[in-house]
Design brief:
Structural class: alpha+beta
Strand order of the largest sheet: 1-21-20-22-23-24-25-26
Distance between the termini: 67 Å
Number of strands: 33
Length: 718
């Protein structure tokens, strides 16, 4: 089950559905209820009808055995000697309310006087749902919280402070985790001034304000006093302050010493920073009580303060492509609407339903620009708040989501969300972003701003994963060292990508050519060459990757060969989206494993991210000519080391393309000092020729680079 807070939204931001829980209220408890009628039954006993309103539909008590729902009196009332026992319950989910008949029983003279003062409208307690499914059974669930704190430095679980956890001993009794808290030697009593405080307290109970600190002014600690309970007496004892932010704690009445009963103020809530230091007993016993048994109930998953590293099942699910694809199938339709959810545990991921997602119809519009600063800022904020992912990020920033988890989105988040995504709280909590489509506007292609956000997320160590329907795989965004660009790589092949020596095929998207057999032989020979050379770019364990433009024609041939040889098959796929243009590159071929996609007009930017160690050219047109020139320039300016570039095809074909331009530049004197670049390009017809060139290069005997000779035709003819 997925839980999330109710979000108040402007009518300008339509919401197709809202998450099922209000994070201002835990799902095991209700808000406080107020007295709507009260009848005196006997001396010291009254029957009160209590109404509890505004109960969120996620309150667990609506769904479990009613016998597990109990009324819990306010601790302030219990400390003054009033116990409240729920006698009859009526819960109405449709009306978001409950009616409870409560027997109010006074214990001692203070309690009897306060009971007479209780007015209509006084808020006296709430319901707690002791859902057995949420009972903590294994002590390790709690013990792993010892010594940990939230982002504000407050301990998650500790007795007597962050470093007092050794005093909290956890045992497993009857299939549940029980902690026995040692009681301090002594007890609390009241001075006579408390009677004058009762009327003020009774009136104050109609306001929902807390009076615990004021009550303490009338309490006296009697150190060393004997801790036993007498008839018609409330016994107040103390423990070290118990900090619990990860669970509810509840007194286990069945494990109390004989003769002792605890009031129904028996539930310790996790939103109290230092609760659990005063407990209220009644009954009769001559034996001194020494400790107090507590059992525990987990919070809703979003607020368990659980670390991602502790979620073994979630991590296993995230490694299962089938589980991820099924999870996205639960997202509400239509598929054009942006949706988001935040997943913090494996069982939640496996049981996602349509109403576990936030779906929002947000529309992008032009902004007026910096000359209209105030209006620009206002519209930007409105646009950010319209995003489906916004409620989750806001709840994380405000501390209403405390567990670490992963974001699931139909579309990669808008770059406008960068400020929130990279905030300290979100970056700490979000351990991964999983999406189906790169862009709502551009489909399967990332804009320039999208790719900048990818780089920023990478720097902040937030994993980004593409649940890619085309390949049927989960792809993770990765950047190689010292590069400001990256690719989406299949899970399990990341290390291969990071360490690979990169070959690439440039060529026509219109024709496949007749080089497939020789190219396959060439790459197969390189794989074998690893066993005989020791070079920074090629040695025994060096993985290989091959990059193309990802389209049809020669690119498809290259990717197909790579796939066949188990070389990582990569592609930089562009969508130039120009009306009237003739572009086939964006038609992705089916042999691509790792990829990056581009929706841009800046062609050079996309080409610069090929980062090839060893380019291979085959027959091609205008695009291939452009790519050839870029590889020349890279080597001339030193952006790329002088590595051999292979030109597959007949010598006359490459002469007709390269030689006239090379000779004209040489004759005009425009390449003086750069003529050597021509020795980096080698025309071959057979794989054996290419392998000989590579072998010489890896052995350091190939005449190449600035110290090599220039050629007569602009390339080398072996």
């Amino acid at each position: 089950m997925c839980f999330f807070s109710k979000v108040t939204l402007s009518a300008n931001f339509p919401v197709r559905n809202i998450m099922r829980i209000d994070l201002s209220q835990h799902d095991l408890v209700t808000p406080d209820g107020k007295i709507v009628s009260i009848t005196k039954k006997d001396d010291g006993i009254s029957m009160a009808e209590v109404v509890i309103e505004h109960i969120h539909s996620s309150f667990v008590g609506f769904d479990i055995d009613p016998a597990l729902v109990t009324f819990n009196i306010k601790s302030t009332l219990a400390q003054l000697g009033i116990n409240g026992i729920g006698m009859h319950y009526e819960l109405h989910r449709g009306h978001s309310k409950a009616m409870v008949l409560v027997e109010l029983r006074a214990i001692g003279s203070i309690g009897r006087e306060l009971l007479q003062e209780l007015p209509l409208g006084a808020y006296i307690g709430k319901l707690f749902a002791a859902d057995e499914r949420r009972r903590v059974r294994d002590p390790i669930y709690l013990s792993r919280m010892f010594g940990r704190s939230d982002r504000w430095g407050r301990p998650l679980l500790s007795l007597g402070g962050l470093h007092g956890s050794d005093e909290l001993i956890l045992d497993k009794i009857d299939g549940r985790t029980v902690a026995y808290l040692a009681l301090k030697r002594g007890k609390i009593t009241y001075d006579a001034s408390v009677f004058g405080f009762l009327r003020t307290l009774a009136k104050g109970l109609t306001t929902k304000h807390t009076f615990r600190e004021l009550l303490q002014l009338h309490q006296e600690w009697n150190a060393g006093a004997f801790r036993n309970v007498e008839e018609d007496e409330i016994l107040l004892v103390k423990t070290q302050p118990l900090h619990i932010r990860t669970v509810f704690a509840k007194v286990v009445d069945s494990l109390l010493a004989a003769g002792y009963c605890h009031t129904t103020a028996s539930v310790l809530q996790p939103d109290t920073r230092a609760s659990g230091d005063i407990y209220e007993f009644y009954g009769k016993s001559k034996r001194e009580i020494t400790d107090l048994p507590l059992e525990f109930y987990t919070l809703d998953p979003y607020r368990e303060h659980v670390f991602f590293a502790d979620r073994d099942q979630l991590q296993a699910c995230l490694e299962d492509p089938q589980a991820l694809f099924k999870a996205f199938e639960t997202a509400p339709k239509p598929t054009e609407v942006p949706v988001a959810t935040f997943v913090v545990k494996g069982s939640q991921l496996l049981s996602l339903a349509a109403d576990d997602w936030v779906a929002r119809e947000s529309t992008f519009h032009d902004f007026p620009g910096i000359t209209h600063g105030a209006r620009q800022a206002f519209l930007v904020e409105r646009y950010i708040e319209s995003q489906a992912v916004f409620p989750f990020l806001k709840a994380i920033e405000e501390g209403r989501i405390t567990s670490q988890g992963v974001l699931f989105l139909r579309y990669f988040p808008s770059p406008m969300m960068k400020r929130m995504l990279l905030s300290a709280a979100v970056a700490r909590s979000v351990q991964g972003i999983y999406f189906q489509h790169p862009s709502r506007s551009y489909g399967g292609f990332f804009s320039q701003e999208d790719r900048a956000l990818l780089t920023d997320l990478h720097k902040f160590a937030i994993g980004v994963f593409w649940v890619d329907a085309i390949s049927g795989k989960i792809l993770q965004y990765m950047q190689r060292k010292d590069r400001e660009s990256g690719m989406f790589v299949p899970i399990g092949r990341g290390e291969e990508y990071m360490k690979a020596t990169v070959f690439g095929v440039y060529g026509s998207n219109l024709i496949s050519g007749h080089f497939e057999e020789e190219l396959q032989a060439l790459l197969k020979g390189v794989l074998e060459l690893r066993n005989t050379v020791h070079h920074p770019l090629l040695q025994k364990d060096t993985p290989l990757a091959l990059i193309t433009g990802g389209g049809p024609g020669a690119m498809e041939v290259g990717n197909r060969i790579a796939r066949k040889l188990n070389i990582l098959s990569c592609a930089n796929i562009a969508d130039f989206h120009e009306e009237g243009g003739v572009v086939n590159e964006q038609k992705q071929n089916p042999y691509v494993d790792a990829k990056m996609t581009y929706r841009l007009k800046q062609l050079v930017e996309r080409q610069s991210e090929f980062n090839l160690d060893f380019p291979i050219f085959v027959m091609g047109g205008i695009g291939t000519d452009f790519e050839f020139t870029l590889e020349e320039v890279r080597r001339k300016v030193g952006a790329t080391a002088a590595t051999p570039v292979l030109l597959f095809g007949e010598i006359e074909y490459w002469k007709s393309k390269i030689t006239p331009r090379f000779l004209q530049n040489k004759q005009s004197g425009t390449i003086v000092g750069s003529e050597w670049v021509s020795n980096c390009f080698f025309c071959i017809q057979k794989a054996t020729q290419g392998l000989e060139i590579y072998s010489q290069f890896f052995h350091g005997t190939l005449p190449i680079g600035k110290n090599g000779a220039e050629t007569d035709v602009g390339f080398v003819c072996p």
